[in-house]
From TrEMBL:
This is Flagellum site-determining protein YlxH. The gene is ylxH. One of its GO terms (biological process) is negative regulation of cell division. GO terms for cellular component: cytoplasmic side of plasma membrane; cytosol. Pfam families: ParA (PF10609).
């Protein structure tokens, strides 16, 4: 970036300080539970409700939203920081009007960015936060330091599990680490049960987790709903077309529609909007200083 570009960018940033994106971090304990498929199709469904949505792949090195979309992104978060690109240069236009940022590789030391890169990252994030209605972060499996920080900074988080006991146990372990290390006032965690055979099966999985989370972590887990097991999800992955688009009458799409309806009907007052950037700033200050 040359001097003039930097100047232009600063002016642009100052004009767009009004942050309004609602930020949601999607995480899981175990990998392979359908987190990326959920994050992507949830974003597309929100897009179809007329919302401006950015899906931000933060699964550095393992991100695969681009594969699910059939895209081959030229740039990524990693190359933005390496080459000082503007965030608008790394945003890809995906299916159905949603925008997408690839994770890329090589950004292993996210928290040890030098001060100028860190300032630059915050500036760029501020720009997207003022441009989109929703930013959905797809995090990798497990609960690293980086995941903890992003979940704490986001307005809310969604933990994805299947109904398998191994997946439920790992979701609990991830939530435990998160809850123990966070201030509860700012934490909203909702459970999404993926690959459920029935509503009853999903409800049982939720009740199991809810009861241990209440008993041992003294935290009230929210339930955002479930997505049915659907063979056509596998077909959608193979065709690199999101299931929400590929199979309009599929069980997965229909259950996601129910999740979206409930989500959109939820009163906004429960969500602590408009503090994302300051929370990201403080999470970095904590690490950088
Ligand atoms: N609702 C579903 N029904 C059937 N299969 C599913 C469903 N959701 C996910 N899958 C399968 O799980 C695989 C892993 O999904 P993915 O979203 O990549 O998981 P993660 O991001 O958690 O690693 C998909 O490729 C697909 O085969
Ligand atoms: Mg994934």
């Amino acid at each position: 970036m040359n001097k003039d570009q930097a100047h232009d960018l600063r002016i642009k940033m100052n004009q767009q300080t009004e942050e309004h994106a609602h930020t949601i971090a999607v995480f899981s304990g175990k990998g392979g539970v359908g987190k990326s498929n959920f994050a992507l199709n949830f974003s597309i469904a929100l897009g179809q409700q007329g919302k401006k949505v950015l899906i931000f792949d933060l699964d550095i090195g393992m991100g695969n939203i681009d594969i699910l979309l059939g895209l081959q992104p030229k740039n990524s978060l990693s190359t933005m920081l390496e080459k000082n690109l503007q965030i608008s240069d790394i945003i890809e236009e995906g299916t159905q009007g949603i925008s997408y940022i690839a994770a890329g590789t090589g950004l292993s030391d996210f928290f040890h960015l030098d001060q100028s890169k860190y300032n630059y990252f915050i500036q760029q994030l501020q720009f997207v936060a003022s441009t989109y209605d929703y930013i959905i972060f797809d995090l990798g499996a497990g609960m690293s330091e980086e995941h903890l920080a992003f979940i704490q900074a986001a307005d809310e988080s969604i933990v994805v599990t299947t109904t398998e006991p191994t997946s439920i146990t790992d979701a609990y372990a991830a939530m435990k680490r998160l809850i123990v290390h966070s201030s509860r006032d700012h934490l909203k965690i909702s459970l999404l049960v993926n690959r459920a055979q029935s509503e009853q099966e999903a409800q049982i999985a939720f009740t199991k987790l809810e009861s241990v989370v209440t008993k041992f972590l003294n935290y009230k887990l929210n339930f955002i709903g479930f997505i049915r097991e659907d063979r056509t999800v596998v077909e959608a992955v193979k065709k690199q077309i999101p299931y929400y688009i590929l199979n309009e009458r599929g069980k997965a799409k229909k259950s996601l529609d129910q999740v979206i309806t409930d989500f959109m009907n939820e009163p906004v007052k429960h969500k602590n909007n408009r503090q994302f950037i300051s929370r990201v700033r403080s999470m970095f200050t904590r690490k950088v200083d």
